[in-house]
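Reviewers asked in the last cycle whether our approach scales beyond single polypeptides. To address this, we selected a multi-component target totalling 515 residues and predicted its structure end to end. The input consisted of the following lines:
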Amino acid sequence: MPFSLLKFGLYKDYPFEQIADLPGPTDLKQYYDVVIIGGGGHGIATAYYLAKYHGITNVAVLEKSYLGGGNTARNTAVIRSNYLTSAGVRFYTESVKLFERLSNEFDFNIMYSRRGQLTLAHTDTTVRAFRQRAEVNKHFGGRTELIDRQAVGELLPSLNLDPAGLPILAGLWHLDGATARHDAVAWGYAKGATQCGVELHQLTEVTGIDIEAGRVTGVQTNRGRVACGCVVQAVSGLSAEVSRMAGFPLPIVAYPLQAMVTQPVKPFLDPHVSSSALHCYVHQTSRGEIVIGGGSDPYPLYGTRSTLELKEGLIGSAVEMFPFMSEMRLMRQWAGITDMTSDYSPIMGLSPVENYYLDAGWGTWGFKATPICGVTMAELVASGGKVPDLISPFSLDRFDAFRQVNEMGATAASH
Amino acid sequence: MKILTCPLNGPRNIAEFTYGGQVKPMPNPTEATDQEWAHYVFYGDNHIGVVREWWMHTPSGYWFIVERHNQTDEVMRTYDPAELFDPGSSPATEPVQADP
Ligand SMILES: Cc1cc2nc3c(=O)[nH]c(=O)nc-3n(C[C@H](O)[C@H](O)[C@H](O)COP(=O)(O)OP(=O)(O)OC[C@H]3O[C@@H](n4cnc5c(N)ncnc54)[C@H](O)[C@@H]3O)c2cc1C
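The resulting structure, written as structure tokens, was:
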């Protein structure tokens, strides 16, 4: 062994052929069957499943910045399916199932790790809501149960059971709660999609959308115009801005969402822990850092600056839950622009423009949906606009009909 | 720390204020169709630029109007709603000194 190493040491070139994970930049073609605006997890996953399940490979993913640099890189990577409505639970349960086998599918480790998620109830009303969520979850094949205060204490010995004067009455224990390396999810999809011939164009911003007689015919970019057979819009925070280019408004308001991580420490916390009353959640990464998230700013903004007020509030709640954390130092803090809908559910499917498909309104909770969004959006595109059952409750026209899918209670504190 | 100037109470820490949504014209509830009403409730002027919003100074319960750039977070103007809804009245320009 040492001899062969020595031999390699004397080589001038690296002795193995290095295959780049992603092909280098190319010119834009004049025409694509499908143009996907936004190279985040959702956009690139849609391209992947279009190529893989439907054999549609004349596809361009146009990303104004770099692959997965938007909210895909900014989220706190909570994966779970313990929502409230039947529509929501059904949808997110499918996504969790897909996530579980992604590393094998990509032959690339996305560091999927199932740890469970514990949401704390501090009032009787929350306990009642949790009971309902547990039942809906079980009905659709998720694993969620209500546990009492004593069981919460046994599960998490380091947790303060009376944080901020709000005694913990019970917890919603979701065994399927998990996390994954968010960047790797985007990379895995991009590697798979480009190997099938999909083109990923980074530093390519869509600046205009050409509509003729109610149909999209092409997009304008900072690198020129490309014609296309249809468009998928998956741009998260900028959803309302991009849809305006296509000529229609969206019922979306942009709010910054802020999060942070501490220095790494020894493992002490396996599950995700979130509190519905303290509006804070924490979990420990496999590197040992504590992720503290997810506070939305108190008013709308298309900006990613951090604020002291929000960080103080989140840290205050985290320290109430785990008092010893007051000794720790913060390492990084950031924000992403989230595209919020009023019912905390996404907007997926058809739009007022015939061949222009929407994957928007993902707000503070869309990372966990990345695989199922890819699958369902690809199906929608490949069928020429036949909306898959799984996403039909999330249509844009639900707002006109007052048919909201209210997930606020199951989303606001946990993402 | 961000400071917002309340037309009634003068410059105050942003934490003293509550955001109350965009200023938008309300259709007549007895005449509007369901779709017009849904549009009023769910849609707004959400593109990047200067927006006109309701804000409240929470301790004094005073509602007023803010014109703000929703990307730079720069506040252009704050004023009493009378200026918008009661065009006859004189605009409130001088902030009133609050008692300590
Ligand atoms: C702090 C924070 C914490 C979060 N935590 C969680 C969590 O724990 N769990 C969870 O499930 N979700 C979470 N989310 C939400 C989640 O990150 C998003 O919903 C999800 O990543 C959206 O994915 P996407 O691919 O649609 O968007 P993005 O990853 O944002 O991708 C959209 C891409 O579109 C590009 N784009 C925009 N405009 C144009 C244009 N004109 N032309 C070309 N490209 C354009 C952008 O550059 C961007 O790369 C969190 C979000 C934030 C900000």
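The longest strand of chain A covers residues 330-340. We regard this as preliminary and will revisit it once experimental data from Aim 1 are available.
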